[in-house]
UniProtKB/TrEMBL annotation:
Alphabetical keyword list: Isoprene biosynthesis, Magnesium, Metal-binding, Transferase
PANTHER family: FARNESYL DIPHOSPHATE SYNTHASE
Matches recorded under Pfam families: polyprenyl_synt
Name assigned to this protein: Geranylgeranyl diphosphate synthase type I
Originating species: Kitasatospora paracochleata
InterPro entries to which the protein is assigned, alphabetical: Isoprenoid_synthase_dom_sf, Polyprenyl_synt, Polyprenyl_synt_CS
Length: 364
């Protein structure tokens, strides 16, 4: 691996190490018997169980790239310590937890980050009351979303800065929900075009995973992101598409032990992901079409059938074309970041130049 990419990953790893300890302390503060930061009820086990599940999901993994983007965005403007970054990072990751829970509800996913998803944890606890299990999972996801905003507005930041950062997160949360609507709409009707898939990526993922952390980091460092919003959006869009293309590639062609969940979720759900769209648009013969028709949208699609789908995809170059597209968008993002060198600090700019290359080649 290129030493400059390695250096960027080392920076990301250090951000993650510091953040994970801070995130654990945050959850401790919510439930501290001596007077938790969250004014919860003295009675009732369901609220406490929800916080346990949120804590477990939030702390048990994830690349924390949003946290790295946030910290490096602040480093674009200053090399000094920046108050409010910890709260902003917690806010970002709580919103991510909300998104993961609701994704798993919609998709019916049993595993998340190598362990049972929150919906399935509740389903196991209430096997005879599926409606209760579903309701509790929805509420747990909602709690994470509201805590995401609360951590900013209750911080020690100056009120105007806290309000500006909370506004960024509110916008990110709203656009993410809009993205979920588009995600479901995409699967109706004919094979979607790339513009719709890019829109789903933009709203469901990119805006809260890349654009919001960029804005929050600059705001926390005292730099107004508004004059640069157009180029921040273009960078975020290119990086977001590269990231989603790689995610979709890994869902069919990755190593399940490395990815941390079972493969083929897009095939089994029938979700019109970049991979599924490419398969449906491929010039397949009758036998290949029979394989695809039997597998796509079948929740019981077994590993042998998935292997046959994988073979069809490789015969038609779906694996190669999607990876090439991911690398093309990654190069676009890197080139955009390179133009920032005349304005922002070089070491942080280098991080944003090399992040897309790593994103398009990662194995999890």
């Amino acid at each position: 691996m290129d030493h400059t990419i390695t250096a960027a990953l080392q920076r990301a790893t250090e951000h993650r190490r510091r953040f994970d300890a801070r995130f654990a302390a945050y959850f401790d503060s919510l439930t501290d018997p001596a007077g938790g930061a969250l004014d919860g009820p003295q009675h009732g086990r369901f609220p406490a169980r929800a916080l346990d599940l949120l804590r477990d999901l939030s702390l048990r993994g994830g690349k924390r790239l949003r946290v790295a983007v946030l910290n490096e965005a602040a480093a674009l403007a200053t090399d000094e310590a920046v108050p409010g970054l910890a709260e902003a990072a917690i806010s970002i990751e709580l919103l991510q937890t909300h998104g993961l829970i609701h994704d798993d509800i919609i998709d019916g996913s049993a595993v998340r980050r190598g362990a049972p998803s929150v919906p399935h944890a509740y389903r196991d606890e209430f096997p005879d009351r599926p409606d209760t299990a579903l309701g509790l999972a929805v509420l747990a996801g909602d709690l994470a979303a509201f805590l995401s905003l609360r951590v900013l507005v209750t911080s020690d930041l100056p009120p105007d800065r806290a309000a500006a950062m909370a506004a960024v997160q509110s916008d990110a949360a709203a656009t993410t929900v809009i993205g979920q609507f588009l995600d479901l709409e995409r699967d109706f009707g004919p094979v979607p075009d790339l513009d719709l898939l890019h829109a789903v990526t933009e709203f469901k993922s990119t805006r809260y995973s890349v654009l919001a952390p960029l804005r929050l980091g600059l705001l926390a460092a005292g730099s107004d992101p508004a004059p640069h919003d157009g180029e921040l959006r273009r960078y975020s869009t290119a990086l977001g598409i590269a990231n989603m293309l790689r995610d979709d590639w890994l869902d069919l062609f990755g190593d399940p032990d490395t990815v941390g969940k079972s493969l083929g979720s897009d095939i089994r759900s029938g979700r019109r992901s970049y991979v599924v769209r490419a398969l449906l648009a491929a010039d397949t013969d009758a036998a290949e079409r029979t394989v695809l028709d039997a597998a796509i949208g079948d929740p019981q699609c077994d590993d042998d059938t998935l292997d046959r789908v994988r073979a069809v995809a490789r015969r038609h170059g779906v694996d190669r074309s999607l990876q090439a597209d991911a690398e093309r968008h990654a190069r676009e993002a890197s080139a955009l970041a390179g133009t920032w060198r005349t304005r922002w600090r070089a070491d942080a700019v280098a991080f944003f130049e090399h992040l897309p290359t790593w994103t398009a080649a990662r194995d999890r």
